Amino acid sequence: MRLDLAYDGTGFSGWARQPERRTVCGVLEDTLSTVLREDVTLTVAGRTDAGVHAAGQVAHADLPSGVDVAGLPRRLARALPADVRVFSARVVPVEFDARFSALRRHYEYRVTDAPFGAHPLRRSDTLAWPRPLDLGALNDASALLLGEKDFCAFCKRREGATTIRELQRLSWERSGDVLTAFVSADAFCHSMVRSLVGALLAVGEGRKPVPWPASLLSLTARSSAVTVAPAHGLSLVRVDYPEDALLAERALVTRNVRVAPTP
């Protein structure tokens, strides 16, 4: 079963289950298990950190036949808290894996440089930046980061996990006082998007030169010079998957350990 869902990350300690903490996975698995009277374990497309939102998260679970999957969103709407919602549930091929079948993930980061700060109705998903930001400088610096590279300088290293990623889109758009970063990649390592945004904001306000974020790609360890942007400005907005016939093939490709690209 595939679930398409969204949540306001403000009141959650991230996606993954943690002892004595309220997490998205914990709330969803517990609620699904109660509603279906079956133990449910979820696999998610992207594990978001504490405070990060999702408008287009995807998860899957293995369920016995006979479960009314199509009617599940309505049942869950009565049982879930208001800060998490399941939009749709449907049966998918057994080869579907929410994590390993994904082609790419799309994130957006919202920031405002308005002198009065974030609009009260958007304060939970928009970072208030105290200095003016140069859109041209942000986009010039972002363009230098595109492609398959080792983003070790922008990631919190996890044992056994690669930091090589293919950054497919990193661009900024302004609408009035609000700037949005559009970030897409085949996958992201831990804290990568927020670290990239933090480095780029230093360029946007004129504190660092345009080439500086890309110059960090030569490092072999996380850079202490990069400030991780606050979580609440970040949202996972979409996950792309191949057609059903290519699901198994995609999962095999994703599971392969990548090596550093040739400079």
Automatic annotation (TrEMBL):
Recorded hits in Pfam families, A to Z, give: PseudoU_synth_1
Primary enzyme class: isomerase
Cited CDD domains: PseudoU_synth_EcTruA
Entry keyword set: Isomerase, tRNA processing
Tell me, what is one Gene Ontology molecular-function annotation carried by this entry?
RNA binding
Keyword tRNA processing part of the UniProt annotation? yes
Binding site residues for substrate: 107
> Active site annotated at which positions?
49 (nucleophile)
Kindly state the subunit structure of this protein: Homodimer.
Tell me which family the UniProt entry assigns to this protein.
Answer: Belongs to the tRNA pseudouridine synthase TruA family.
> What function does the entry list?
Formation of pseudouridine at positions 38, 39 and 40 in the anticodon stem and loop of transfer RNAs.
- Name of protein: tRNA pseudouridine synthase A
- Source organism per UniProt: Saccharothrix espanaensis (strain ATCC 51144 / DSM 44229 / JCM 9112 / NBRC 15066 / NRRL 15764)
Q: Which gene encodes it?
A: truA
